[in-house]
Specification:
By secondary structure, the protein is of the alpha+beta class. The protein is built from three helices and nine strands; from the N terminus they run ββββββαββαβα.
């Protein structure tokens, strides 16, 4: 896990998608600048796909839509959305995630973003989220960095290298 007390050495805006008119929607992310053109993400993003806390990446040609992961941290980015009071859900979910070594990276009025290492195991993570969120029928959760950001369905399989280490 990236230490959440790490102070950013900079902020970087990346394209998180586009609006109905096709204009880019930007998300501002805290990063540690490692060297010219290389960044370490300090918390998992809410909307930017294919990145999680601790990942090292570069932005090609200073284009905020064209970023490339150089080294994975092994963290999964997990996004939770709820129409109503998300703090009630957060109070139940965060302590359970922290027991597994996870962290709450971001909380808004209707969203939570967590980071947790893939070595915890997909089955255990899914059991935890599905179990707690069964009590919150107006909520959904998604992985933010396991599918191809272009098609949203093709698994990236970057985690295979981490799971083979255990």
């Amino acid at each position: 896990m990236t230490d959440t007390n790490d102070k950013p050495t900079g902020w970087l805006q990346l394209v998180a998608g586009s609006n109905d008119q096709g204009m880019p929607i930007m998300e501002k992310l805290p990063v540690r600048i490692l060297e010219l053109g290389q960044f370490e993400l300090l918390r998992s993003p809410l909307f930017v796909r294919d990145l999680a806390a601790g990942d090292i990446f570069t932005v090609e040609d200073s284009n905020p839509a064209d970023y490339r992961v150089l080294r994975r941290s092994g963290n999964l980015a997990i996004r939770v959305f709820r129409k109503d009071n998300i703090s009630l859900l957060e109070q139940n979910l965060t302590p359970e995630l922290e027991k597994q070594g996870g962290s709450l990276d971001l909380q808004t009025d209707r969203a939570l973003v967590y980071s947790i290492h893939v070595n915890v195991g997909f089955a255990d993570i899914e059991r935890l989220f599905d179990g707690i969120m069964a009590n919150y029928t107006d909520s959904v959760w998604y992985y933010g960095n396991i599918y191809d950001r272009e098609d949203g369905t093709t698994p990236l399989h970057w985690w295979d290298a981490f799971l083979n280490e255990i």
